[in-house]
Structure formats: structure tokens, C-alpha cells
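Changelog note: in this version the structure field was regenerated for every chain. One regenerated record is shown below for reference.
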Amino acid sequence: MNDKLTKDLISRLNYIEQRANEALATHITNKYGSNMIDSAPFYGFRSAALSFLKSTFGENNIYYSEFDSNTQRSGYSELLSAIEILRSLRTEIENNWLSSFKGLISAEIFTDFFEMAEYLLKNGYKDAAAVIVGSVLEEHLRQLATNNNIAITYEKDGDSIPKKADRINSDLASSVIYNKLDQKNITAWLDLRNKAAHGNYADYEISQVEIMYFGVSDFISRNQI
């Protein structure tokens, strides 16, 4: 895991832990000796943490499932358990023990390829940039489909055939993984990528590749695996 990614994850954890401390600051012991906290800051902390865990690791990850199951009610002991779960996660991140997770690897690959595409665009190499951005988009669509139990292959004459990116795009939109506007944009981006890959360089301008670059970047950030 690269330094920038580690720094970004720790920065977001710092914010979430700050929300936890705000909830912890409401702790009192009532006249019956029970530990109590205010529910509002607790659920604000819970929402921030679950959003982070889901977008970074997915709902099937052990940290997400443990955190979710241990914070169903806004109790003092539940808050302490949640804090300990996040402390364990912080330790794994700081010691670079999470590099095998698919989401983190994809994030690093995404960053590397987009930095390459940005460099190419700045130097006027629109065709190579279009192919790179389109390839990143196509792979992301496949991973989104897999994570949402949408088939990325189909059977024909006993063989398993990979679906084309356009069909995966249609399947994802039909399953309401993202909206129809995203689907239309993706169709256009895939078409531009195909033009670049097949040498039809006069069919598009560098400004269109730049729009594609920013559009795909935004789409992936909103639809993380």
C-alpha cells in the first residue's frame, strides 16, 4: 500500500475517532450505576464509520460486519467495542497489513493508471490516455458487477464467454447499482475508448478525452468496490 493511500485512510480514521470521542464525552453513570451515553453523537459516529468501512473494504469484510453487529444499539459498552475495532484496523493499516484487500489494491492501481493518463494528456497524447482511462473503467465495471452478484460471463455451447463492457454496463444500471445518466455516460466513454483502441484517432478531440478522464474519475469515486 503506497504512502498516499495509507495517509488518506489514517486521516479518515482520525475524523471517525474524533466522532467517537464526542460520543464518549457524553458518558455518565446514572443513580443505578449504569453507564449511559447520548444516542445522537453515537449514531453520527456509527454512520461515519460504516460509510468508511463499506466504501473501502465492502460489506463482506470482517471489520464491517463486526462493527455493524456490535453497534446495533447506542450503549456505552457498544461504543467501547466499536472504538477497539477501529483501533485494530488502524494498527493493520499503519503496519501495511491490508495490501492484499482487493479494494485497496484496486485503489492503488486506479491511482497509478490515472496519474499515467494525466501525464499523457498534459503532453498531448490523447489516444494512449483514452485507452488507459477506458481500460480502468472497464475493469471497474467488472469488479462492480462481481461485488453485486451480477454475472460477467455467459454460457455458449458449453463455454464461459466474458460479457462485453457495454452489456455489463446495462446489467449494472438495470440492477440500479447506478443511475441511467451514469449508464449513458459510460456508453459514450466506452465508445471513445474503442475508437482509440482501433486507431480511429480523428473521431475525437483531446478535450473529449479530458472530459472522459474527469468523468470516469468521478464515477469510480462514487461507485467504489
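Spot check on this record: Residues 3-24 form the longest helix (22 residues). The first strand starts at residue 28 and ends at 29.
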